Amino acid sequence: MKKLQAVHLSLLALSLLASGCLSTVEPLILSEDSPTTVKFDFLHKPLPELPLPNDIATRYDAQSATKRRINASMIAPTSIESNVRKLIDELDGYV
Fold first, then answer.
1. What are phi and psi of 14, to 5 degrees?
2. Which of 66, 46, 48 is nearest to 57 (CA)?
3. pLDDT for 69
4. Which of 68, 75, 71 shows the shortest CA–CA distance to 93?
5. DSSP structural state of residue 60
6. Could you give the residue ranges of the DSSP H alpha helices within the chain?
7. What are the pLDDT digits (tens) for 22-49?
8. pLDDT band at 68, cuts 50/70/90?
9. Is the Cβ–Cβ distance between 51 and 40 less than 8 Å?
10. Closest CA to 67 of 43, 93, 33
11. Most exposed residue of 32, 72, 76, 86, measured as fewest CB within 10 angstroms of its CB?
């Protein structure tokens, strides 16, 4: 009996999910396109172009006050830039 109830609940959940995916959303009002853009390019060299602040370019660190650290690439063409990236990598992430 419990297996049958579980199957019925699963089918109900699946049908609700499927019906939600098939619906269309209409805007409340129509507006003109905006010239504003956000650059978001992970493959940009020498560093990715990311809008700030966000936690995309951070990693977990339990020792940090924010539990996040900036995850900077250590690959750099000069020793000065390499040193700067090491220092950036020690910064806390955003709150």
1. -65, -40
2. 48
3. 83
4. 68
5. E
6. 2-22, 79-89
7. 667 777 888 888 888 888 888 888 778 8
8. confident
9. yes
10. 93
11. 32
Which amino acid is present at 11?
L
Phi, psi torsion values for 31, nearest 5 degrees: -135, 165
Distances (CA, A) of 70 to 2, 41, 58, 93: 49, 17, 4, 5
Closest CA to 56 of 41, 76, 44: 41
Q: From the CB of residue 70, how many other CB atoms can be counted at a distance below 10 Å?
A: 19
Would you call the peptide bond into 46 cis, given omega within 30 degrees of 0 as the criterion?
yes
Buried b (16+ CB within 10 A) or exposed e, 23-51: eeeeeeeeeeeeeeeeeeeeeeeeeeeee
pTM of the model: 0.46
